[in-house]
Amino acid sequence: MTPQEGHQRVGENVTKGKPDMHEAIDSPCYSPIEPGRYGDLAKPMEGSNLLNYPSNFDVLLENYINLLGDLSRKIMKGVALALGAPLAAFEGGTAGDAFWVLRLIGYPVSADILQEERTDIGCGAHTDYGFLTLVNQDDDICALEVRNQSGEWIYAKPVPGTFICNIGDMLKVWSNGIYQPTLHRVVNNSPRYRVSVAFFYESNFDAAVEPVEFCREKTGGVAKYEKVVYGEHLVQKVLTNFVM
Ligand SMILES: O=C(O)CCC(=O)C(=O)O
Ligand SMILES: [Fe+2]
Which GO terms describe its molecular function (predicted)? Predict the structure, then answer.
């Protein structure tokens, strides 16, 4: 299947040139984009992207997406307060119409993957693209690893009833590096199929994100990162993350 049709088979997602040992239902599950709304910027992602899910799974997903959108907005308000920014810093043109992506990901047991297709990485090391990600992972499998400041990979151990919250690239740029995106990867060495649900909360699709003045002032006065149009960043990442 192509990414537009929504299911990625094991090995189709690629991180830094290497196939990832996971499968996912994902590309269909992001904010719908009306054709023409962002001109050429969003062309590869336009249109209705909903699959025909069995039973009432789409209703369930929609509820989940709404709840996690609300939760993400609350967390972003907390981030604004922590930075000394106005409470509405992430509303309006920045994230008032936040783009979101939901991925339902499955990591098979190694022995179940054809030997000639197998690698040892479920998802290669990367940072997420937007403001933040809320990961809901299986309660009893340690597989998500994050790199700490000493450069060691440590487990982000599942704590039942909680989400892992990753910081994404856009928050790094916006805060001029005060918030750093955490490098993470997934290695499923357990004898069980692992499932995770990742909700990515982003800026507006067409937002031009750059270090804001008061964060620059707190960090030496100079912008450490260039302005990024989120949609361009995403489309470029999506196009390089699939084997076309
Ligand atoms: O499966 C996980 O725990 C994390 C997945 C992930 O990092 C991603 O899809 O960006
Ligand atoms: Fe990630």
Answer: metal ion binding; oxidoreductase activity
pLDDT band at 55 (very low <50, low <70, confident <90, very high): confident
How far apart (Å, rounded) are the C-alpha atoms in residues 171 and 177? Answer: 8
CATH number for 39:
2.60.120.330
pTM of the predicted protein model: 0.90
CA–centroid distance, residue 198 to ligand 2 (Å): 8
Tokens 């499932």: give the residue.
195
pLDDT score of 242 more than 70: no
Alpha helices in 114-244 (DSSP H): 169-174, 213-218, 230-241
For residue 2, being part of any structural domain is answered with no
Which value, to the nearest 10 degrees, does the dihedral of the CA atoms of residues 225, 15, 68, 137 take? -130
Domain interval for residue 100: 7-241
Ligand 1 within 6 A of CB of 135: yes
pLDDT at 2 over 60: no
> Would the ipTM clear 0.90, i.e. be above it?
yes
The DSSP bridge partners found for residue 146 are: 154, 184
Q: Is the minimum distance from the CB of 123 to ligand 1 under 6 angstroms?
A: yes
Task: Tell me if 194 is assigned to some domain.
Answer: yes
Of all atoms in ligand 1, which is nearest to the CA of residue 122?
1
Residues 6+ apart with CB under 8 A from 44: 235, 238, 239
pLDDT in tens, 62-117: 899 999 999 999 999 999 999 999 999 999 999 999 999 999 999 999 888 878 77
